[in-house]
Amino acid sequence: MDWQRDAACADTDDPDLFFPISLNGPGARQVERARAVCRRCPVAVRCAEWARETHQRSGVWGGVSVEPENYGR
Ligand code: SF4
């Protein structure tokens, strides 16, 4: 978990941004805002790997979709 020290989201004032309540409407806009943070994150690949390895079922990890079947895309 050392990679989290370098996470672009580590100092965010809105951690809920990465856990949208839906993928539609305001939730879709929230996902896009979270993904914008992930795009400038130096540990995005490791983050996505960790989410896949630990079977995360919700949230934006590594800038990929919150849908588990989309991890790694
Ligand atoms: S890829 Fe996104 S969710 Fe993962 S550590 Fe970086 S900013 Fe946070």
TrEMBL record:
Positions of [4Fe-4S] cluster binding: C9, C38, C41, C47
Keyword presence, Transmembrane: no
Superkingdom of the source species: Bacteria
Pfam families: Whib
One BP annotation, GO: cell redox homeostasis
Limits of the 4Fe-4S Wbl-type domain: 8-71
Stored PROSITE patterns: 4FE4S_WBL (PS51674)
Cellular compartments per GO CC: cytoplasm
Record note on modification: Upon Fe-S cluster removal intramolecular disulfide bonds are formed. The Fe-S cluster can be nitrosylated by nitric oxide (NO).
Subcellular location: Cytoplasm
Keywords: 4Fe-4S, Cytoplasm, Disulfide bond, DNA-binding, Iron, Iron-sulfur, Metal-binding, Transcription, Transcription regulation
Cofactor requirements of the protein: [4Fe-4S] cluster
UniProt remark on cofactor binding: Binds 1 [4Fe-4S] cluster per subunit. Following nitrosylation of the [4Fe-4S] cluster binds 1 [4Fe-8(NO)] cluster per subunit.
GO molecular function, one term: 4 iron, 4 sulfur cluster binding
Chief localisation class: cytoplasm
HAMAP family: WhiB (MF_01479)
Record function comment: Acts as a transcriptional regulator. Probably redox-responsive. The apo- but not holo-form probably binds DNA.
Family per similarity comment: Belongs to the WhiB family.
Protein name, per record: Transcriptional regulator WhiB
Organism (species): Streptomyces roseirectus
Gene: whiB
